[in-house]
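Hey all, quick one. A colleague (J.T.) asked me to put the zinc ion job into the tracker so the inputs and the structure tokens live in one place instead of scattered across chat threads. No bug as far as I know, just bookkeeping. Sequence used:
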Amino acid sequence: CDSAQETPAEFLARFQREARPMHNKVAEANWALQTNITVENEEVFVKARLEYAKFSQMQERQALLYLQNTTINLTPDERRQLTKIADIGTSAQTDVVKLERFAKIKTNMDSIYSKAEVCVEENCLQLEPGLTELFRTSRDCERLSTAWQGWRDQSGRKIKDLYAEYVQLGNEAIQILGYKDMGEYWKSAYDTPTFEKDVAKLFEQILPLYKQLHAYVRRRLKAVYGAHIFPSSGHIPAHILGNMWSQSWNNVGNLIKPFKSKQSVDVTDEMKAQGYTPKSMFETAEAFFYSLGFANMTKTFWKKSMLEKPTDRNVVCHASAWDMEKEDDFRIKMCTRVNHEDLMTVHHEMGHVQYYMEYKDQPTVYQGGANPGFHEAVGDTIALSVQTPEHLKTLDLMHAENIYDEETDINYLMQMALDKLAFLPFGYLIDQWRWSVFRGTTKPESYNEAWWDLRCRLQGISPPVKRGPEDFDPGAKFHVPGDTPYIRYFVSFVIQFQFYKAACDAAGNTRPLHHCDFYNNPTAGHKLRSMLQLGSSKPWPDALEQITGQRQMDAQPLMEYFQPLLQFLEKENGNDYGWTENCPENPPPC
Ligand SMILES: O=C(CCC(O)(O)[C@H](Cc1ccccc1)NC(=O)c1ccccc1)N[C@@H](Cc1c[nH]c2ccccc12)C(=O)O
Ligand SMILES: [Zn+2]
């Protein structure tokens, strides 16, 4: 570490020069590992992580010198930049043995998860594409239940002990920075003292709407599978909702569609019929962003991205977007399949890349989301416009004669609710569980019990087969072994409707909110882009205020969007809605 004779401004300029090459080095090693999981690539990545931690510790020490030196007067911006440089997370661990063990545990959990497969007789299915396709298309209770349990045996069960050690080491490292535990550190990214209460309030606000959707879906699925597989407690068995984690229910949309004779907006069949490929899906997304005034993907993007699952090696299939912090090197890694759900994920991932490109001229420390939820909301905001019947017609992917016909409209809102509304309790509960684990309230021997308490109470779903203390079902979801916070998606699913409404208002939309397509509207684009260009240079309430005029997260635009559906659901459900706090002791068999 150079001595502190540098002025703060000189230190910040040097940090700018040195940090990017360091970040690039780690990103390259991480990319090499995630696109080819081998022992050798794991070792190279761990080494790069250790080197990066040492670099971060040096920068943190010098930044703190300036921040704690009362004789130096810093500008507010210098203070903000130095505080961010000092915020190095678990890299603060100075005990190299513990730091290396922590890094190894994380790569170990990641590779167990990404290589896991479920074998029935001699044919084995990995999560992507095999098990995901099974949950998207199968209506066979037994097969789904076997796959549901098999996946948890091959993933969660195998990382339970590693996870307990990860919690211990992570907390030890973060306590060096003065945080009580990892959960407190993760929440500090929102820099809002009332953050936990704010999200709890948003969840309470949305719960009545979710309960109505849950009741309707339960009734329709009973008609398909028979009431005998449903527990009397009112929960929906987790394996029949079209998704391995029951987190979004869009894949059972064809079973739930309220008006069978009218169109639904799952365009998978049309995409296949028209010969869409993963590449053309990315080009379609690129064209929408471009129509708003965003940049096209760079040449390096098309050259270095991994848009399909390779057949000859193990990769981390879970989608991600990468800022390599070197010239125009932005990438997406995704095992893309040609279907509606993946077309939306393509927009989600490209939203990350567009955010990277909008804030690329900010100082390195400000090259991030205003808060983690903002980064998750960019692509989804665009996807709300892409999924309107208006836009799907523009794409020639939907051929409904009258898209404003009331029954078609309810079908459309139902399909959107199966993706967006169904997700909210799941998006909320993952970090409720993790914050309690990091806090020490939930100990390893009750990891799974605490998990199902939340899943049964907040989400109203139940396990298809009995769970025991050897199981570790949270570990069966990418972000838990992946050490990736999750409340960001709950925040995103609320604020994306605020962004969407703001962009629609800017575009002069006069239709009902859920029919607003701001494609080709540079005014809407400018509204969005000017907020994204801030990166994390301003507190997120300032960024939110710039685009919506408000400084708070607000579920009102989401409620406005789904208002017509709520009326339909309340009429359909009458008093038949809700579930008891706890799941039944013994799940009814298929
Ligand atoms: O995980 C993702 C998408 C992947 C990601 O783009 O969020 C990715 C996750 C990740 C984080 C850290 C390491 C590796 C993967 N995040 C990013 O690529 C990313 C990019 C820039 C900043 C922060 C994160 N979605 C979540 C939430 C979700 C459910 N349904 C959705 C529909 C649309 C969008 C998101 C979701 C999920 O699949 O459970
Ligand atoms: Zn994302």
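Adding what we noticed when we looked at it: The first strand starts at residue 117 and ends at 120. The CA atoms of residues 447 and 472 lie 7 Å apart.
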